[in-house]
Amino acid sequence: MGTLTTDFTMVQSGALLQANGGFLIMEVESVMAHSRVWDSLKRALQNNKLFIEDMSREMGLGAASLRPAPIALDVKVILLGGYEPFRMLQNYDAKFNKLFKVRADFDYEVERTDETVFLYARFIARVCRDEGLLPFTPDGVAAVVEYGEKAIESKSKLSLKFGSVVGVIKEADYWARKASADRVSAEHVVKAFAEHRFRYNLYEEKIHENYLDGTIMIDVAGARVGQVNALAVHQLGEIAFGRPSRITAETYMGEPEIVNIERESKLSGKTHDKGVLILTGYLGRTFAQCYPLSLAISLTFEQSYGGIDGDSASSTELYAILSSLSGIPIRQGIAVTGSVNQKGQVQAIGGVNQKIEGFFDVCCSKGLTGDQGVMIPSANVKNLMLKKSVVDAVRQKRFTIWQVSTIEEGIEILTGRPAGRPTSEGIYPADTVYGQVQQKLKTFLQRSLKLTAQKMTSVT
Question: Which pTM does this prediction carry?
Answer without folding.
Answer: 0.81
